[in-house]
Amino acid sequence: MPDTAVSPALANEALDVVELTRDLIRCQSVTPVEGGALQLLDRTLVPRGFTCERMDFTQEGTPDVANLYARIGKGGRHFCFAGHTDVVPVGDLSAWTVGPFGAELDKGVLFGRGAVDMKGGIAAFCVAAAEFLAARGRDFGGSISLLITGDEEGPAVNGTVKMLRRLAERGEPVDLCVVGEPTSSKRFGDMMKIGRRGSVNVELTVRGIQGHVAYPDRVDNPIHRLARLIDALIGVPLDQGSTHFQPSSLQVTTVDVGNPATNVVPGVARARFNVRFNDLWTSQTLLAHLRERLDQANDRVGGNGLYEIDAQVSGESFYTPPGELSDLIAGSVRDVTGIDPELSTTGGTSDARFIRAACPVVEFGPVGETMHKVDEKSAVTDLQALTQVYALMLERCFG
Fold first, then answer.
1. Is 327 a catalytic residue?
2. Is the distance from CB of 128 to CB of 395 less than 8 angstroms?
3. Nearest to 315 by CA among 358, 261, 356, 262
4. CA 302 → CA 216, 222, 238, 298, distances in Å?
5. How confident is the model at residue 1 (pLDDT cuts 50, 70, 90)?
């Protein structure tokens, strides 16, 4: 069992962001395992006035997932912090110079899986909320909630999307949401995310006629056709980008034949690719365009075989126009760090793609250079500054 005992810092009225991050890192919550992280947050938040509700979901074909919804306040403006306690696997353990779940501190740097993505961010908004409540009291005229999933790094089926659905079903709207993903690029505070590209994974299958390589007239080589189809997909850019987004990107991730013989033409060949697409497309218009390219290439190639594609959409592109929420973050970052953060839509996907349907959402958090890497780490000063930014956001949000 993971060590989920509350540290001395958690027993006191005042929370310390570094110690809370360390406690969370020690919870081995690799997707979809809860690992004690949500229990730790429950014990941390309840004494400070939050009502904590476990929202655990299950769906056939996917892992069961534990989630936590914590809220203080029953009316007024509703400000939500969102994040995930699940982390990716550590990979090659021998490559780590420290224990990935040891939460070691060395020369002002905290090491461990989740230090950046995103237990540091969760700790920061927990401490920020606690500091705000200590200063303003529990009757501050609004509501603060924490939407914490254990399914962000996995299929993302039994987490945020279902939690939001439950809130909507019981008439519990959210007005503004900040996701604590590691958005800073090189220096803390230099970037926030006001949107993200969509993502679709596609498997492309081409079938031919298997046979002896010495008799090309008796075979139909699917590898040759697949190569031409891939060329049709990548030969011309999908677009040149848009006002707020970089160009869409199609990247082939694998080509599989499964043929150990040197004298046999295989009967089938497959490739998989991912497209990160901007707001010039929806997943439907993008897939229609890809089929058009493939159809044209297949006609040119000729032969007896046809292609098949199987597509899985991870999320649509979205964009939160600059306004109240981005101004709230930017002003707080500027006053804490002296930096004007860039408003960006770069990078991968996050659960903000689900939240954007419920309310304006922006992502802001630590420097993300080491997320998912060996020796993941976050500077102590960054965690402290992030806490200050979140606390100042709450002060200004609730006047």
1. no
2. no
3. 356
4. 15, 11, 24, 6
5. very low
Collapsing DSSP to helix, strand or coil, 269 comes out as strand
pTM for the model:
0.89
Length of the chain: 399
308 is catalytic: no
Both tokens of 296, joined, read 């044209």
Instruction: In whole angstroms, give the CA distance from residue 184 to residue 330.
Output: 12
Query: How much of the chain is in helix, strand and coil states, percent to nearest 5?
Result: 30, 25, 45
* Amino acid code (one letter) for 19: E
Once rounded to an integer, what is the mean pLDDT over residues 246-272?
96
CA distance 59 to 50: 28
8 A C-beta contact, residue 158 and residue 64 = yes
User: Pick the residue with more confidence: 303 or 374?
Assistant: 374
Q: Please give the sequence-ordered ranges of beta strands (E in DSSP) within 8-72, or none if there are none.
A: 51-54, 68-72
For 144-191, what is each residue's pLDDT tens digit?
A: 999 999 999 999 999 999 999 999 999 999 999 999 999 999 999 999
Q: What percent of the chain has pLDDT over 70?
A: 95
Q: Are 195 and 252 in contact (CB under 8 A)?
A: no
Distance CA 268, CA 258 (A): 9
Query: Active-site residue among 19, 152, 181, 376?
Result: 152
- Is the bond into 118 cis (omega within 30 degrees of 0)? yes
Is pLDDT at 196 greater than 70 in this prediction?
yes
Question: 19, 23, 34, 86: which one is catalytic?
Answer: 86
